[in-house]
Amino acid sequence: MEQNSQKTRSPKNADSYRRQRIRNITQNFFLHIHAPRVHPHSMKLTTTFGLGVILVFLFLIMILTGVLLMLHYTPSVADAYNSVKDIVHVVPGGRIIRNIHRLASHAMVIVVFLHLLRTFYTGAYLGGRQLNWVFGVVMFVLVLLMSFSGYLLPWDQLSYWAVTIGSNIAASARELTDLLGITSFIDAGGFFQQLLIGDEKVGQTALTRFFMLHVVFLPLALIVLSALHFWRIRKDGGLSRPVAKELKEQEKWYAWPVLMWTELGIFIAVVALLLFLSFFIEAPLLEAANPSHPENPAKSPWYFLGIQELVSYSAFMGGLVVPVLFMWFLFSIPYKDREDQYIGQWFSGSVGLRLTVRSAVFAIVVVLLQLLVLVKYGGIRDWFPGISQWFVMLLNPATFTVVVFIVYAMIVRSRTGSTRMSAIALFTAAIVALIIFTVIGIWFRVENWEFGLI
Ligand code: HEM
């Protein structure tokens, strides 16, 4: 019937009618994801810095370039390295596609971290948004795992030893079970290592497992969680904003076309930047993996080097207790702090900003002082060579930092009477310490994991 009516239109009218229909369909698709109206506060650059949207585009670019790479990649120990070499040197455009894929994956890790900071410091988990924060924390872990699982695929020296270190970190619980003398009965560390790499050593089982995780399970999980994340934003009434800035529905802006153009602009900028950088920054490819020739120092991927640094003090504390406490803290933030009056305000105002700066300085002093002592005078084992491993496990910078930070947050809580302020204090201190330990791991650890400048 509709087609009949189209037949009776003049060619000019039919043309504009077709264009109108296409526009309606596109708008509907766009408006499926976005609410029809958007609060002007959400459109301000300083509200989100576009970080969530950048993440979406990076993920799409990763899927697209990943599918192209998969056309030539072979996930077997015998062929993986050569297939990547072919992608770089033989397949037309392969080098650029691989560079973009690698750059986008590092960018995703950095941007998801920044997005986490922005949502925390603007109190975006308040006002009934707890669930979306929890989805976000899971997505944060998924992004790290996506990047880590891709790390092994080239099967070169860098990837092999980075993943070997990662799998050793997974076995961190062994320090405790060894001390208790129960590893032969309960080997939790070995269980986690087996779960990750499927064997005692990184080999074909690990490669198959990482490949399947990287190309199927983790992307699917991230797609499902992204859908839930966006659904929650719609359900929660759009992005968070200060209570004083609430508007009536008809005072808000139409999402179409202003938001569409903004997002298109961000998309073009992300693609252009990645394309530009991919001509200058080469994705590394060392010699083929050689399990009998370890790299020295063998380092995990850079985003796990903070943990590797802590593991070098104590495997159990650094590789298990501290990461578990940190994740538990992240998940619990919106359930401990419900001071909704601070929603949508950067740093919860000037008091929170001052506390953020103070907590950052405090963390820098606490961590750097300990590192200074370590570099100049060594650790507890150097002072008392015969000391029991129990003391080494309990008295080290990883344990000390955690205890000091928790006490600090408790003091802030009792002085201010505010859960938001103590969350800001603990979050800031933990993030600053994580950054410092990561920087140390990247640039200040040389052969045999000694201190030095790379
Ligand atoms: C791949 C990972 C992620 C993607 C693709 C993603 C995407 C987005 C997008 C597009 C938005 C709306 C725009 C914006 O706020 O920039 C958003 C909002 C939000 N995200 Fe994420 N996000 C991810 C990870 C995270 C993480 C790690 C957290 C924190 C733990 C998080 C927590 C939130 C919250 C609470 C909001 C609502 C913000 C508000 O109401 O102001 N997200 N996310």
Task: Estimate the strand proportion.
Answer: under 5%
Helix content: 55-70%
Q: What is the overall silhouette? A: globular
Low-confidence stretches: 1-7
Helical stretch count? Answer: 20
| Biggest beta sheet summary | 2 strands, antiparallel
User: What order do the strands of the largest sheet run in, or round the barrel if closed?
Assistant: 1-2
Note down, in words, how this protein is organized.
The chain has 454 residues and is an all-alpha fold. The chain has 20 helices and 2 strands. Helix 5 runs antiparallel to helix 7, helix 8 runs antiparallel to helix 12 (204-235) and helix 16 packs antiparallel against helix 19 (397-416). The protein is globular, with a radius of gyration of 25 Å. Bound molecules: protoporphyrin IX containing FE. Protoporphyrin IX containing FE is lined by residues 48, 51-53, 55-56, 59, 112, 115-116, 119, 124-125, 129, 132-133, 136-137, 139-140, 143, 226, 229, 233, 239-240.
Walk me through the topology.
Elements: H1 2-7, H2 11-33, E1 37-38, H3 40-43, H4 45-48, H5 51-70, H6 80-89, H7 94-121, H8 130-151, H9 157-170, H10 174-180, H11 188-197, H12 204-235, E2 253-254, H13 258-278, H14 305-311, H15 315-336, H16 350-377, H17 380-383, H18 389-394, H19 397-416, H20 419-443
Antiparallel strand pairs: 1-2
Bound molecules: protoporphyrin IX containing FE.
